[in-house]
Each structure stands twice: as C-alpha cells, then as structure tokens.
Amino acid sequence: MTLRFGRTLLIALAGLSLVTAPSAAHRMHAGVTEIAVNERTGEMEIIHRVYGHDLMEALDRTELDASAFLATPEGLAAVAAYAGPLFRMADSEGELMELAYVGAEADGEYAWIYYAAPVPAEQNAFIVDNDLLSETFDDQVMMTNLRFDSRVRTAMQGPGRRAPVRVRFSD
Q1: Predicted model pTM
Q2: CA 108 to each of CA 22, 26, 123, 136: distance values in angstroms, whole numbers, following the listed order
C-alpha cells in the first residue's frame, strides 16, 4: 500500500511540476517602442511599452508596485531620469532630437513611458538607439517601430546588436 501511495504521490508531483514549469521558467526580456505622428497635435509621439516589474527592477524599486509607484511624482521623476539617457533618436544627419518627457503609467503587467518631439522637416531616415532595460537584463530586446506616411520601419536591438540603428524611409 505504501509503495502504491508513493508512486501516486510521485506521479502527482511530476504532473504538478509540468503544469508550473512554464511560469517558473525564465522568460525573455522584451519591449516595444512605437513612434508616429499624432495628426491631431502634429507632434511625433514616442511610446515605450515594457514589463512593469522589469522597469521596477531597473529602477531598483522591486519592493514597490509599478502602478502605485508610477502614480506618484517621485515615480514619474525616476522614470524620466532613467529613460531619458537610454533612448536616443537622431535625424538623418545624426543630429540628436530633443525629446520631451510626457509621463508614464502602468496598465496591467506593462509600464508605458511617453515622450513627444517636433516632427523633423525631413523624414527620410532616423537613427535610433534604444537601450531601455539593457543595462539591467543582458537578454533585453527592444523593437522600435517608426510609422511615417503609412510606411513602417522597424529597428531591432538586443544581445549582440546594441549599436544605434539607421532606419531609412527612402527607397
């Protein structure tokens, strides 16, 4: 009887480990940045979406809830100080664009970080350097989508590919 109970317990534990394995496995660190012109305001909007708990780790605030922290002036200031130097964008001549921090918020498991900038006169090429979270996570991947005149271009940066990316809109 004890052998049968032991086997049943072992099978149950094995099954439980299969069910919980995906949640315990290490996941990839990834984020997305969307850049587009807001037709209403005429400004270029830069929106970063990253996992809230990853952002909190980068800010060294893992003991805090992202939603609560990003709802405070201290949280908003911390995100501005963190993200500003890690996302850079330049025009086709390599001139850095001045990006204005708008704010940040958490929604579910994601944190959203917002910037705005004037639309450059020429939109034929940009240089994107998106290093958000890469100093915290070696495997961090950031995908930056640029949308201008119904054309979309994507810059990918991640392990082994951290250099700034030139994105061309001219054929």
Answers
A1: 0.82
A2: 20, 20, 34, 21
Phi, psi of 19 (to 5 degrees): -70, -40
E strands, 74-119, are: 87-90, 100-107, 110-118
Residue where the block lists tokens 């890469």: 134
Q: Which helix (H) or strand (E) holds 152?
A: strand 151-157
pLDDT of residue 19: 41
Note the pLDDT tens digit of each residue in 19-60. Answer: 444 433 347 799 999 999 998 998 999 999 999 999 999 999
Residue 133 buriedness (CB in 10 A; 0-12 / 13-18 / 19+): buried
Q: Measuring CA to CA, how many Å separate 115 from each of 87, 101, 151, 157, 170? A: 10, 5, 21, 19, 25
| Bridge partners, 168 (sequence order) | 125
